[in-house]
From TrEMBL:
Organism whose genome encodes this protein: Vibrio sinensis
Lineage: superkingdom: Bacteria
InterPro entries membership: AB_hydrolase_1 (IPR000073), AB_hydrolase_fold (IPR029058), Epox_hydrolase-like (IPR000639)
Record's signal peptide: none
GO molecular function: hydrolase activity
Name of protein: Alpha/beta fold hydrolase
Length: 253
């Protein structure tokens, strides 16, 4: 069994690593990759338990970041800048500590390097498990099952991108069991030692994932951190306002 992450490498020049969030895959930040690959080499990854990468019952930030570090080593990529969204933002931060001397710039999309105490995904897990149990024959049936648990159409559509046909029924690409069992690890955070990597936190103006009260925690872990707010957008800022997010990223790079 291969323990190398599934990835996509596009473009040429300085390498930018794109890291998706929970329940995502390497296509999630594709909207950023399409523009960035015009000027950079872009490495998009499927994290463990997601997309076409391997499944593991170990799922914590140390292992998630080490997977990406190992991939960079295997691809012989030395210097990188890293962009991570949500859970992927925490992976990006941990990776920046592990390979600090290789990271030129770090960009974190709508996530703080802190432990979160709120279970935001109870209804999502209920919907995902219902689909697994009922084994719907097609995508339409799966989306119908999800609608009994998840109110927001946008969230259902996002999750639906990870459905695939498994013979007579559709199934999830990500490992619902491993992610559910490790959910406390995903909320959790062990502060990194303070790093000097220039870092940009981009916040969705209407999102509560990254707030003023996280500032002290950020300053303890980063000596060069800046923040940028994208107005009128939530946690999925790159999907809602891609042009504004790209402008902030390019300016920082």
């Amino acid at each position: 069994m291969s323990y190398q992450l599934n990835y996509k490498l596009e473009g040429e020049g300085h390498t930018i690593v794109l890291i998706h969030g929970l329940f995502g895959n390497l296509d999630n930040l594709g909207i950023l990759a399409r523009t960035l690959k015009e000027d950079y080499q872009v490495l998009s990854v499927d994290l463990r338990n997601h997309g076409l990468s391997f499944h593991s019952n170990c799922h914590n930030y140390e292992s998630l970041a080490q997977d990406v570090a190992d991939l960079l080593k295997n691809l012989n990529i030395q210097q990188v800048s890293i962009v991570g969204h949500s859970m992927g933002g925490k992976v990006a931060v941990k990776l920046s500590e592990i390979i600090e001397d290789q990271v030129e710039r770090l960009i974190v999309l709508d996530m703080a390097p802190v432990k979160y105490h709120q279970n935001r995904h109870d209804n999502v897990f209920a919907g995902l498990k219902a689909v697994e149990q009922q084994k719907p024959a097609n995508r339409k049936q799966a989306m119908e099952i999800l609608s009994h648990h998840i109110e927001l159409e946008g969230v259902r559509q996002f999750l639906g991108k990870s459905l695939y046909s498994e013979g007579d029924y559709v199934a999830w690409r990500f490992s619902v069991t491993n992610l559910f069992n490790n959910y406390q690890n995903i909320l959790d955070w062990q502060p990194i030692r303070r790093i000097a990597t220039p870092t940009l936190f981009i916040k969705g103006g209407e999102s509560d994932y990254l707030t003023a009260e996280h500032q002290a925690d950020i300053q303890k872990q980063f000596s060069q951190a800046k923040a940028h707010v994208i107005a009128n957008t939530g946690h999925w800022l790159h999907a809602e306002k891609p042009a504004e997010v790209l402008r902030a990223i390019k300016k920082f790079l």
